[in-house]
């Protein structure tokens, strides 16, 4: 290498920071800085790039990237996953959005399920509570008793869920280690317990209102059926639960208006859907009452428990709606990801083919049933626009575009390539002469703005 001889000690299997594009096909070696200076290959006129790799939390990287964008020099450029590898960046962004959506919907499903289960449980316990109160149990003791049951159930399920989540996380990490060039970073320890913490908060905020209602059950409930009334403290706790859900929605959606709209949809949509479901049940039960032996009892039961059926129907409809959203989002995500790269997209590119190599390479590809087309290619820079230096016609923002600061791959052909689809305009005819050129859309927009 230059004026020095080096010994290859190892083979570089993967280098994730190389980026994408044709430049990633060039040979790469890692050498000591002292050996680089001794080789003498860096001299005036040499093409050299110096890179600084930065890592940290997403907040730190985002803040520092914004600082760099405002202070970059003309010869400096900021690389990121989204800019350097848009396909991979978009796929990761879509996958992250889907994971956030599934986590959010799982939380909402849990909240609705807890609310419905506790409502049903409290209705089945009011006779028992009335009996315990008649035997001398205080209201405070009853609240503590049921609250301890909730906490005990939460502790058992939280341990089971946390250990299951940790085991699945390790299984997925080991599976991904075989596919990724390096292991995934270990998550923070506190993240393993966020689900259990949010579950406890939801359980307490949703469980205390019916428990407080049970503690106020009258002893006369042993002799007549009475509805459990929700106290003001219970209503306040339900409002606190709604606020907690709003905070969680804000953390997931990062958009206050979207969080408010989603929460309002759940509350108002549940009320409307529950009313519609109750109306449908009533009109479906009426003709059945004339045909079934116990039809009148069915209608009477629906009338007596109309509030419970309205609530149960609303929760069931919302649960099915949220599950449908997850399924549709999953299908759309996979379709969008698969549509980014067509089935016949090339996986390999052969460059720097010399004229005397073309015939042999073409025979090799034909024997392998590979339909490949050869194109001439030269390297060049855009130096003038309309006869004047291009840099003098550009704004500082336009000069930051990388296509104007590097060599471009230039090719030519008399006929339009079969793999290029014309969406607008028409290709020039074979006998056409003149300064005709085809450029990518983004670059054409920059040049048009300069004119």
From TrEMBL:
Residue span, ABC3 transporter permease C-terminal domain: 102-218
Parts of the chain that traverse the membrane: 98-118, 143-168, 188-214, 235-253, 259-281, 311-329
Domain of life: Bacteria
Gene Ontology CC: plasma membrane
Compartment(s): Cell membrane
UniProt KW keywords: Cell membrane, Membrane, Transmembrane, Transmembrane helix
Membrane topology reported for the UniProt record: Multi-pass membrane protein
Glycoprotein is among the record's keywords: no
Coiled coil regions, renumbered to chain: none
Protein name: FtsX-like permease family protein
The organism of origin for this protein: Nitrincola nitratireducens
Lineage, broadest ranks: Bacteria, Pseudomonadati, Pseudomonadota, Gammaproteobacteria, Oceanospirillales
